[in-house]
Amino acid sequence: MTDVAQLDAADPLAALRERFLLPEDIVYLDGNSLGALPRAVPDAVDRVLRQQWGGDLIASWNRHDWIGLPTRVGERIAALIGAAPGQVLCVDSISVNLFKLLAAALDLRPRRDTILTLRGDFPTDAYIAGGLADWLGPQRCRVHAVEAPALNEHLDERVAVLLLTQVNYRSGERFDMAALTAAAHDAGALVVWDLAHSAGVMPIDLDACAVDFAVGCGYKFLNGGPGAPAFLYVNTRHQGGVRQPLSGWLGHATPFDFAPQYRPAPGVRRFQAGTPPIVSMAALEAALGVFNDVDLNAVRRKSLALGDLFLERLAARPALRELNCITPREHARRGSQLSLRHEQAWGISQALIDAGVIVDFRAPDILRLGFAPLYNCFADVEAALAALERVMVNETYRDPAYDQRPAVT
Ligand SMILES: Cc1ncc(COP(=O)(O)O)c(C=O)c1O
User: Which of 10, 165, 335, 339 has its CA 20 to 30 A from that of 179?
Assistant: First the structure.
């Protein structure tokens, strides 16, 4: 038995790969962008389409509790992110949820005007914060983006809300949720955490960290499928008086009264605006079944072990010396991806994909390898490194076929 085969044989999570439908002949290291398809999803979606929509038609809103999906799926996600019931709703996209939550947070700090955030976070977070500030005008709101080491010194009495991502999409760096939340609170500010690259791949303790608000997406490590709806978290202590700007009918206390006046639903449900995407949400609900008996501490241990093995063997291959890992090596500061910098990263990513190792690229020069411990194995790490070595030695990344970049990179 090879050493990676021994590691796989000893892996307590190895059997979970069977819960996914993955092509045999590829190594999939892109679960940080689009999670793999859980085996239970196609039948679940087929049931929603044929039996529920096709057979029961509009009665399905009650008969199959379509109307309860945002709350029901929200509660399943809550169990994965350390949130007691009643605080998580599956709804909209991260971008839309950020708009609602940042506006809500500013409203709770009427004498403060600043959204403090980090430079280099995922662009939509900065775009939405900037869009909200433009909308409210400079008298009411400004966005201040700083480098991570300077964060604490900028947490002053103007900061209404600190907007942070737990794991940076480009570098894979993980930030200390407990410490940064406490620092924001000490300064009188609220926090919004973006969990896009952490939900489903490590234990998260929103309640224990006293987080105010959070968002995350359904299509990465939760495996909900392309365009899966996102989720948001509103800590119970804010639910009494909090307002949000997208006051749509399904966030109304009694939407089917069709009352002329908006009256927000009690609790987190007021953060719903319009009709939920039932088919996508049903896919996500079925996908979450994968986690039923899974211990996220074990997932985290395997995620780090996969990354450690990759780093150790990367360093042992002279042909890969030009690939500079920008992800911190310390476990506490690492998410579940490794990011390698190389000026030919685009060509390398394409040559790897053509060799059956699915990775991705982030402009201008980052090759990302995401480890999804529910379906990646130690043999995947070895296969990815062997393919990477061939690409670098043979310089297949220079193929002119890679000169054109498609719409999605
Ligand atoms: C950290 C982070 N935030 C937000 C998003 C985008 O979220 P959405 O498309 O749901 O608005 C992404 C997408 O990859 C992301 O990585």
Answer: 339
